[in-house]
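Homework help board

Subject: predicted structure for assignment chain

Our instructor gave us this sequence and asked us to write out the predicted structure in token form, then describe one feature. I got the tokens but I'm not sure how to describe them. Can anyone check?
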Amino acid sequence: MDALAGLLDGPRARGAFLLRMVMAPPWSVRVEDRAPLCVMCVSRGEAWIIPDGDGSRSGDGNGNGSGSGSGSDGGAEAPVRLLPGDLAIARGPAPYTVAGAADTPPQALIGPGGACHTLYGEPLEETMRLGVRTWGNAPDGRDTLLVGTYRVESEVSRRLLDALPPLLHLPADAWACPLAPVLEEEISRDEPGQSVVLDRVLDLLLIAAVRAWFARPEAAAPAWYRAMGDPVVGTALRLLQNEPAHPWTVASLAARAGVSRAALARRFTDLVGEPPMAYLTGWRLTLAADLLRETDTTVESVARRVGYGGAFAFSAAFKRVRGVSPQEYRAGRTASLPERQVSLR
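My token output:
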């Protein structure tokens, strides 16, 4: 498994919230749905994404914000302008605003589950419905935005979320992907199994976007991803990722990497930011969290598949790191999927 494949082995939308927004200026929508990830593509006109904060990092003077990927310093993101063919990924649960112009105050608010209402709480479900999965203030509005939202964290791996900036922006000339037109064509169809089709198109669009972003020089890749290029640490990382159930020790890893135990431990910690065995524990529990989404997989089976001798040791480690038991995690992932409050199909 290469580094990127390991990172992208996770997006699996299940009943994702998808819609086509058609808006006539002035318009502005505040998003407070607390969703872990939202993908947005402009197919016509333009849109601005304004993250929470003071927007102190201004754009380049031509209306193009600087929020194209770093965002890893914890500072406020600048507003980002999306033009036709541009794509943005907003990482939750922090709120943000999507608008036709950066200075337009919000007129509507999106809450958990896609519930939409005015700032005074008046529902907008019926008044802004324009058709199947189509929503907006004017059927012939200037701006059209495709929106796909992963509504619960279990649909996207934690490793992927942690690797992304709060707001990722890919201009149209930075990537070549035919999937956005496919999404636009499919999003307003009302056919049997359409939600599954849309889920898979959204997954592919997200994967293509993340792959294109990681190829850009400004992408702030996580330490373990950068360390894959090191001849020693990269070898150890690939062994851990490809064979997580193996009873690895630092000594056995060092032998496979062709260096001393002390040399591997020091170099691994310097490049990855944590010791090899700590990384292995985190990787095993990340894989386990994904496996627990499969309701027909027992906790005992999950434990053995990721390298634990039994359910007891695995459950103790899982609860120590995640704060809940595997059973509680599985139940919580299922229960936390919110009811869709706005039907756009």
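Reply (TA_rk): Your tokens look well-formed. For the description, you could write something like this. The radius of gyration is 22 Å. That's the kind of observation they're looking for.
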